[in-house]
Every structure is written in C-alpha cells, then in structure tokens.
Amino acid sequence: MLHEGIHVGIAVSSPSGLVVPVVRVADRSPVTVTVSSLGMFGVDQFPAIINPRQGAILAFGAALGEPWRMRYTITADHRIIDGALAAQFLATLTGLLEHPLRVIE
Fold first, then answer.
1. Which part of the chain is the 2-oxoacid dehydrogenase acyltransferase catalytic domain (predicted)?
2. How far apart (Å, rounded) are the C-alpha atoms in residues 87 and 74?
3. Which residues contact 95 (CB under 8 A, 6 or more apart)?
C-alpha cells in the first residue's frame, strides 16, 4: 500500500484568516474531494488551486437565480486522478443537482 489513508482539508474563512481543518482517513467516508465556495462573496466562478497533497478541489460559485444555475469547476492532480474520471464526476454532480431526488433512488 502506498498510503495508509487519504486526508481531506476543508478550507474555511475565519476572522483571523483562512483555516483548513483536515478530515483524516477520508477514504473510509463517502466524500474525498475538497470543496471550496466563494459564492457568498458574489463570485460566479473561479479557478481553485490544489494545495500540496490534495487530489482534487471542487470550486462552487454563486447561485445565479436558481441553485441549478450555479457554476462549478474541478481542478484535479492528474498524477492522482485521471482527467476523464474528474469529468465523469462533474457529469454525475450535474445530474444530481438537476434531479436531486436521484440521490435517494
């Protein structure tokens, strides 16, 4: 085994600056992608930058009237995650955002 576990950082803005709490052994939980959002500042879209040891980061912008009109992008380290898999992830996410009841099907 190359690594004993996957750890995920969650960037959180605080009054004293950016804080990144870490979810340890995230590979044993259903979510393993870092998520960043600047929508609360009115930002429609932005390129999220991967920090060292991150596999991917999903960037959400502001909702444009309705939640399903939100822009989002993914930045993936191609040494860890194949670009085609990242694109498939975005396609699946788009489908779930457009049809949220599929989550419980």
1. 2-29, 31-103
2. 8
3. 102
Task: Give the Cα-Cα-Cα angle 85, 81, 101 (nearest 5 degrees).
Answer: 40
Amino acid type, 102 = R
Q: Which residues are catalytic, by number? A: 78
Query: Which is nearest to 23 in space by CA: 60, 61, 54?
Result: 54
Total residues belonging to the chain: 105
Residue 13 tokens, joined: 């803005």
Q: What is the pLDDT of residue 67?
A: 57
Closest CA to 33 of 100, 88, 71: 88
The encoded tokens of residue 67 equal 């939640």
Q: How confident is the model at residue 79 (pLDDT cuts 50, 70, 90)?
A: confident
Domain definitions of the chain by residue range: 8-104
Question: Residue 58: how many CB atoms within 10 A of its CB?
Answer: 19
34-37 and 56-64 strand pairing: parallel
Structure tokens at 102: 């599929």
pLDDT confidence of residue 88: 92
